[in-house]
C-alpha cells in the first residue's frame, strides 16, 4: 500500500503509515482492507487527489470512534464521489466531519450533505461554492438549530442560482456573521 500511495505523494504514504496501525485493530480484516481501498481510490481520483485522501486519513480515527463501520463507508463513499468532481470539495467535506459529527445525528448529516447538492448539481458546477459550503456549514450547524441551518443552506443556494457572485457574497457575509457571534 505504501508504494501505491507514494506514487501519488510520499507525504500521503507516510500519513497512511502513521494512521493505519491505529485503525487496524478496530476493524476486521475485511473492513481494514475496505478502508485501505477507500484510501487508495481517493488518492487515485484525479489531479491533486492526495488532498482528499490525506483529509480522509486524518479524519479516519475520529470517524471510526464516532461511527459504525456502515456509517463510515457512507462517509467514505460520499467523499469518493465528491473527489471525482474535485479533490478540494472532497477534502473540505472530510475536514468538516469533526465539528459536524460532534453535535449532530445521521438525519442532520443527510440534510447537511443535501445542502451541498445545489452547488454540485448546477450547470456548470459551482465547486468553489461547494467548498465554502463545507467550510462554513459546520459552524452554522453548531450555532443554530438544524431547521435554521437547513434554511441557511437553502438561502445560500438561492443566491448562487441567481449569480455566482451573489453566492460568494452570501458566504462572505455568513463568515463575517459567524466570526462575530
Question: Helices and strands in order, then pairings?
Answer:
Layout: H1 2-8, H2 10-23, H3 29-43, H4 49-66, H5 69-85, H6 87-95, H7 97-101, H8 106-121, H9 127-143, H10 146-162, H11 164-180
Could you tell me the strand content as a percent range?
under 5%
Structural class: mainly alpha
User: What is the overall silhouette?
Assistant: globular
- Taking Cα atoms only, what radius of gyration do you get, to the nearest Å? 17 Å
Distance between the termini: 45 Å
Overall mean pLDDT score? Answer: 90
Secondary-structure element pattern, one letter each:
HHHHHHHHHHH
Oligomer: single chain
DSSP strand tally: 0
Concise synopsis of the structure shown:
The protein is mainly alpha-helical and 181 residues long. The protein has helices at residues 2-8, 10-23, 29-43, 49-66, 69-85, 87-95, 97-101, 106-121, 127-143, 146-162, 164-180.
Notable characteristics:
181 residues, mainly alpha, globular, single chain, 11 helices, 0% strand, 84% helix
Explain what the structure shows:
The model has no long low-confidence stretch (mean pLDDT 90). By secondary structure, this protein is an all-alpha fold. It is globular and about 45 Å long. It is built from eleven helices and no strands.
Amino acid at each position: 500500500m505504501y508504494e501505491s500511495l507514494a506514487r501519488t505523494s510520499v507525504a500521503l504514504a507516510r500519513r497512511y503509515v502513521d494512521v493505519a496501525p491505529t485503525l487496524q485493530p478496530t476493524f476486521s480484516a475485511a473492513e481494514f482492507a475496505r478502508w485501505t481501498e477507500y484510501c487508495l481510490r481517493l488518492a487515485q481520483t484525479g489531479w491533486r487527489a492526495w488532498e482528499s485522501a490525506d483529509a480522509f486519513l486524518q479524519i479516519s480515527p475520529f470517524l471510526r470512534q464516532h461511527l459504525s463501520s456502515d456509517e463510515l463507508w457512507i462517509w467514505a463513499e460520499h467523499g469518493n464521489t465528491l473527489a471525482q468532481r474535485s479533490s478540494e470539495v472532497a477534502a473540505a467535506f472530510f475536514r468538516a466531519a469533526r465539528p459536524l459529527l460532534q453535535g449532530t445525528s445521521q438525519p442532520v448529516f443527510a440534510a447537511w450533505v443535501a445542502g451541498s447538492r445545489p452547488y454540485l448539481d448546477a450547470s456548470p458546477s459551482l465547486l468553489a461554492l461547494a467548498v465554502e459550503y463545507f467550510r462554513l456549514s459546520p459552524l452554522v450547524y453548531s450555532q443554530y438549530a438544524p431547521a435554521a441551518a437547513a434554511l441557511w443552506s437553502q438561502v445560500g443556494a438561492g443566491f448562487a442560482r441567481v449569480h455566482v457572485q451573489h453566492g460568494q457574497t452570501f458566504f462572505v457575509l455568513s463568515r463575517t456573521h459567524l466570526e462575530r457571534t
